[in-house]
Design a protein that fits this description.
alpha/beta; 8-stranded mixed beta sheet; 15 helices
Length: 341
Amino acid sequence: MAYKYPVGIIGAGAWGTALAEHLGTCCGHNVLLWSYDKKAAKDIRKNNENSVFLPNIDLSDNIDVTTSIEDITKHCEIIIYATPAHFCSEIACLIAPDIKEDQILVISSKGFREDDGALLSDVWLEKAPQLNKIAILAGPTFAEEVATKKPTTATIACEDTYTLGKIDALFSSTLFRLYYSKDIIGAQVGGAVKNVISIAAGISAGLGMGENFKAAILCRGVIEMMRYTRSIGGERITLAGLSGLGDLILSSHEGSRNYRFGYYLGQGKDVQQAERLVGSTVEGIKSAAILTMQGASHGIDMGIIMAIHSIINGDIDAKRTFYMLLDRPRVNEFNTEDELR
């Protein structure tokens, strides 16, 4: 089928708008951007700017905007999902009947379904089983840096080699380099779990525990990512790449919402105060609860993640929790040779 646009983006928040700007300006594609927010849509149409979610950035003339989500499934060959993870089920249900078998879905949001911890790819396949081309875009990608033409690399994960090449051709520019992976599980786990570990890094900074301990939190956090990934069928090595370690490094300083949220908790603010100070969605809060539940049911040692959930839940003081982590029984850095595979 011939489509009017090579690519459509679901979500005109900061990330969706940044992707549209990259694809429109750096790659020269005509892009259709769906916005739930009518004010943002009007602003993009009238002023070529999204002052609501990505202010002070001139947007490409190649970007068209719509407030009718049906336009995306009707007119776009490649569909990029770029709204927060907690909207995934709702949006998938809404457009699933209109998705066609030849369309490609690229999931660029990070998180799990809230009620059962399902990966977003599984949510889409459940709602739209006719989809046979699903890819995951993951990695260290701050929206503002992508939109302002800073060099960026990311992972594109898909089980189909042809689809990988097609998406790479769509995104390819001197400023945006994609690395291939076939591990769609690991690519999604990294993007979701790093939000929780980023909160932990922020708490340690807020408590004044120093760079040594922050580095330890990040390193042991990657191990917890790897354990969870393997438990649900992904590859550990994926988490050593851009979608795991790379994304975690990016998310572990003050430019990250999750890190700032943790920092405020470490300084003694309660959860509600910390969220207000951040001023936008802190994805790691819900991910911490989901991972704690899933970790317990799978029998996985994820001490940092469980500690963060306990702190957010008000079960234990942050400083005491972190010293308890330090005082756990001494073990080999890797429990068995199997953990390295």
